[in-house]
Fold each of these.
Amino acid sequence: MIVGERKPFDEIKEKIKDYKKVFILGCGTCVSVCMAGGEKEVGLLASKLRMANQLEDKNVEIGEATIERQCDREYIEPIAEKAKDYDVILSMGCGAGVQLVAEVLEPMPVIPALNTCFIGITQEEGIWAERCSACGNCLLADYGGICPITMCAKGLVNGPCGGSTEGKCEASTEKDCAWVLIYNRLKKQGKLDNIRKIFPPKDYSTQAHPAQYVQEAYLKAKMGETNE
Ligand code: SF4
Ligand code: SF4
């Protein structure tokens, strides 16, 4: 999932200070799971903004809604009419969601209330951890299911850098060395021979931005329908 965290309150307040009608829009998918931009967080931010405005004697209308996904047009369109009653959207979706909301509701200004952090997993309750850098050419099969690009601070694909100490990374002693993890996993899998293989340099051209994925089968089916 995409993991995000709410921006500092003062930064949000500063960005919306010139607007009189603010519509806070939450997202019910990834950022809801990581407790950054779901319905509950929308409610908390709305209350905090109302209180702050009251203390400063400012008359600002705050609206709230949470849609299933901000990265999907079909969920944004139904709130388009309601959005017209406001001066600005304060989006609590990830960066992709903010951009699609801005595109669908153009020319309405859309301000991000979150910082989008990474693609990750739930490590334990309240803790999320990065696992994938969306490189566009997944290498996990050769590394025991541990991503050298993301989990190694240097993104090394052919073994450790030599700075690893007692299983920890030289870039941060709080983090495990990815190559120790990879070694241990491959050992358990009986695939330690993989460690001796020399892999070609990572082809980062597959990570060219902005990327696009086209589902051929879906397109063909759609074309077939159109031709009928
Ligand atoms: S190899 Fe690439 S796609 Fe696979 S987990 Fe790592 S960054 Fe993600
Ligand atoms: S210590 Fe391990 S994880 Fe850290 S940069 Fe070196 S090889 Fe990568």
Amino acid sequence: MAEHGASPVTVHKAIRQLSVLGLVDSRPGVGTFVRTVRPARPADYGWQTSALGARSVRVAGLSSTQRASVPDAIQLHSGYPARDLLPERMVRAALARASRTEAALTRSPVAGLPELQAWFASQLAATASAGVTPPSARDVLVIAGSQSGLSSVFRALVGPGQPLLVESPTYWGAILAAEQVGVTLVPVPSGAHGPDPDDVDRAFASTGARAFYAQPTFANPTGTQWSPDTGRAVLDVVRARGAFLVEDDWAHDLSIDAEPRPLVGQDEDGHVVYLRSLTKSVSPALRVAAVVARGPAHDRILADRAAETMYVSGVLQAAALDVVTQPGWPAHLRGMRHQLHARRELLLESVQAHAPQVHVEHVPVGGLNVWARLPDGTDVGQLVRECETRGLLLAPGTEWFPAEPSGPFIRLNFSGENPSRFPEAGEVLGNALRTLA
Ligand SMILES: Cc1ncc(COP(=O)(O)O)c(C=O)c1O
């Protein structure tokens, strides 16, 4: 305190931090002592090479969307929204309230808090077609983020060595989850209005697959939505083939120009297994989502969840439920929609003005991303590295393809920090493309 002119509180905080870093030991009643520094010895991990054998999963390490950001870089690579898009006050208040409930000290049911199950079910009831019985609260399983739900669904309903139809391009995390389960991916091309139902039918027929993973609403990466006709026709094919449609409604709350129309609302025989996530609209820190399934499929997924995680933290479930049932929640969603619209427009204008070589085929009607095609022959990996050295982080489109990419693409996320830097991002992208041309 004397040497640095600091208060006792500051010194106490500094000592706590040193202790957390393992640099000092505090012994009550004796004092605080500097730990002896052990000389670092390089460990020998060579034995793991033969213990682990060859890698069976194609994607090595983390996706480029998950890489840590460099300070001051413009981040168009990540998949989660920045803080100013989130209902920060509601989340903080909900967490404080949740910490005072029973949920803070008890374990939750495997399928989730009944009130939260009921909320997810009520959301589906609101969009169900007339005459169709929507899923009930009993059909809802609360999960810690839909990513882990994808793994469970692929494990429980498809299984190792079995084929699974997927749109191409599709979400890299679904490709990764499927590959980790050992599922064989069968790509079906998908465009502005979704896949061609005849292509889906042919793929079912030629592979004997019994499941199709798809994003009919605001797909990641393209931001497109299936037309109602495509949705109906694909559901007909799925029914006729006695198969499942795994509907990933990750961006339900992220609409910009269109309303979500979940296909699960047209199904009552358990063909649609539905995933809905709150991590992008409530908070990435409240990892709460749901998988909705009926019949024996529900029981198989439930058993998988129980084996994998037993249950989701009740505090997170209670807080998420608190946020989505606040009177301010609909206003938050409306505000988010306006902000996403403004951000999308600014990014599109910035790319058009400074990187006219980049072609955006579809303006995303929802979601958080612009999917952009680069001039033919562009080396996407080299472009991403070139942009990174100039302070712009991008996601290479390669990761969204279950097989070879159909062209050179990048994904630009418009929900990150600091949209005022989008014009600068456009300039960096344009200059990097000119350098590589
Ligand atoms: C299509 C899609 N599905 C699932 C997820 C996983 O979301 P979470 O695990 O955060 O619910 C994401 C995340 O970006 C996504 O884009």
